[in-house]
Amino acid sequence: MKRSEFLKAVAASAGAATFGLPHLARAQAPGLRAGIKLTPTSLDPHFRLSGEQAILRAMHARLVGMTADGKPEPGIAESWRPIGDNTVWEFKIRADAKFSDGSPITAEDVAYSIARVPTITGSAGAYHIFVRAITGTEVKDARTLHIRTAQPYPFMAEDMTEIAVLSKSLGAGLRTADFNAKEVRVFSGPYTLTDYRFGEFIEMRRNPHWTGAAPAFETANFKVISSDASRMAALIAGDVQAVDEVSIPDIPRLRRDANLNVTQTAGMRVMYVAMDMDRDASPFVRDAAGQPMTRNPLKDARVRQALSLALNRQAIVERVMEGAATVASNLLPEGTPGTSANLRVVQQDVARARALLVEAGYPNGFQLTIHATNDRYPNDEKVAQAIAQFWTRIGVRTEVATLPNAAYFPAASRQTFSVMAAQYGADNVSYAYRALVHTFDRERGLGTANRTRHSSPRADALVAQALTEMDDAKRNGLLAQAADIAIGEDAIIHMVYHPAYVYAARKPLSVTPYYNGAFLPQAVTRG
Prior knowledge:
Blueprint: H1 3-13, E1 32-36, E2 64-66, E3 72-74, E4 77-83, E5 88-93, H2 107-116, E6 134-141, E7 144-149, H3 156-159, H4 176-180, E8 191-197, E9 201-206, E10 219-224, H5 228-237, E11 242-243, H6 251-256, E12 260-266, E13 269-275, E14 285-286, H7 301-310, H8 313-320, E15 325-327, H9 350-359, E16 366-373, H10 380-393, E17 396-403, H11 405-413, E18 419-425, H12 429-437, H13 457-466, H14 472-489, E19 493-506, E20 509-511, E21 524-526
Parallel strand pairs: 1-10, 1-11, 16-17, 16-18
Antiparallel strand pairs: 2-3, 4-5, 5-7, 6-7, 8-9, 9-10, 11-19, 12-19, 13-18, 13-19, 14-16, 15-19, 20-21
């Protein structure tokens, strides 16, 4: 950050400390004051599965909890197990679990919450994938819920880490608009909502009936500060006590600041490039002369492999991400169960890439546009520019077009782009494959994040077997084989790097980094 920009940012942040409490001076405001990069797009915890929605986990607990490093742990449920022929999962609800109004959380509330998820419409990233396997729920008693599936299904506990538990008292007609209008006032998490303004702030207060570990702060006030410069300046000036998504150029400087604690974790997330394999005429693919093409080169595996070979992933990590990432070969970091040991980071080979283009019938190359966000991920626009430069060097002249996050993903969901660069995070390889890599299948809830309609049917068949395999080793082997085919042989989607999540807080506060990038008030501790 230039010094002039930094000083402007400090000035801009000076009046931003009350987070929706304009009647209080900053020194009087109780609890945690934090700065976040992105605003929740909705207060409905069932509406959209995306990073900016993670903060809603502070107010809406899950049936199964999740540790900071992504492992299931007791949540609203104290225990769970498959029973009978492995087509029924039994969940036991904690006897002391209560909503914020003091009413008990029962199996009926959980069944209500599961049933609501498929009714949500208009979402750019629905939670449907986590309930698709469910054929029915049966309330055995107030503390016992049976969840049925048509076939043995090994991922039920992991699925239930994603579904927020709501009170049945909210009614069958509960709408997303009701959440956004702040009409919902019953919560199951460690915090309750006190106020919210889209794009500005979200205020929370400790849930007096929360029976889990008590959060360190009575109140938590998160102000949306989308500008990296302004967010870092607000932290240094003391206007906020903690921030997420530390900007990459600022990491070394903040680490040197004796007043700050900087924490970081390797995220269960991948930065990827997806390509349109669906259409013969793709909207942003042109021939070498710049004319539209009726033969889409991205449907040819040799072309896709050439584009992968053109990338220097290590250079992107070192020069663009300044080391705040690791090169990727799999959907999730190396060693994650279900990843493939056979997949290695694709090394740049310009000569081989050009030869593959010639072999595929494109000796003069062609032109395309890669679309990316410009405000969603650290250095997202710069990463897209680097990819474009590498592709241009092999004869695929590439332009970059960027959009704000709020416009980008709805457009991507309409299959607007020919090539898109984005990131995707998941708790395990199964989720990542089912949502991001699998052939799009609306009815089965597969390929929900497959916005370019790429496809590898051979790999999908292996995943279908994995979804009913209860033996962990066999299941992970099938998922690894699927990755070998879809990512390796067919090259339907390119893995580039795994980003790190970096947070900073003013001492004595410290932020516990979460595997999925969540920035939660209960994860901020004193000392």
